[in-house]
Design a protein that fits this description.
With 163 residues, the chain is an alpha+beta fold. It is built from 5 helices and 7 strands, in the order E-H-H-H-E-E-E-H-E-H-E-E.
Length: 163
């Protein structure tokens, strides 16, 4: 693993993000993806909505200055959630763990939530390594798999000392 940072997403990143989010293996792992990951117009509309939403903090993950993925925090039904999506070229080197650690350090609200498809053992391991624990699970339709799959909800609770 190289030097990992989070930085603001800019226009020059959009092609790399689109390509990352349409990688068939990554789509199958993430499971809860766009209905059609190859639809660039839908991606452009979605990403513009995310970028213009006041409650979304959308970042690019870099490794040694190069594109390695995305990280974001956002609010769903009053709960603050985080997500990390790492490009294939940065898999299995600790990039996701480092990116999640930076994201969590930026996000003071607790509990902090994350969602993952049950078959995604790598993402589950990253969440657990950073102190998240499973709080619920249930079947949801996963466009990336074309079928229902258990969606696991993890939470990072406040520390006992209040920090």
């Amino acid at each position: 693993m190289g030097h990992i940072e989070l930085r603001d997403l800019d226009e020059d990143d959009l092609d790399a993000v689109f390509e990352m989010m349409r990688d068939p293996d990554a789509v199958a792992m993430a499971a809860f993806t766009a209905d059609d990951p190859d639809d660039r117009a839908a991606f452009d509309a979605w990403i513009e909505g995310e970028r213009s939403s006041a409650g979304v903090w959308l970042q690019v993950v870099t490794e040694n200055g190069g594109f390695a993925g995305t990280a974001a925090s956002f609010t769903v039904d009053g709960d603050r959630e985080v997500t990390v999506w790492i490009a294939r070229n940065a898999w299995r080197r600790g990039v996701a763990t480092a990116a999640l650690r930076l994201l969590v350090a930026h996000e003071p609200e607790r509990p902090l939530y994350a969602r993952v498809a049950a078959p995604n053992a790598a993402a589950i391991a990253v969440l657990e390594r950073e102190g998240f624990t499973e709080v619920s699970r249930g079947p949801e339709f996963a466009p990336g798999l074309g079928r229902d799959v258990d969606e696991l909800v993890f939470a990072l609770m406040p520390a006992l000392d209040g920090h």
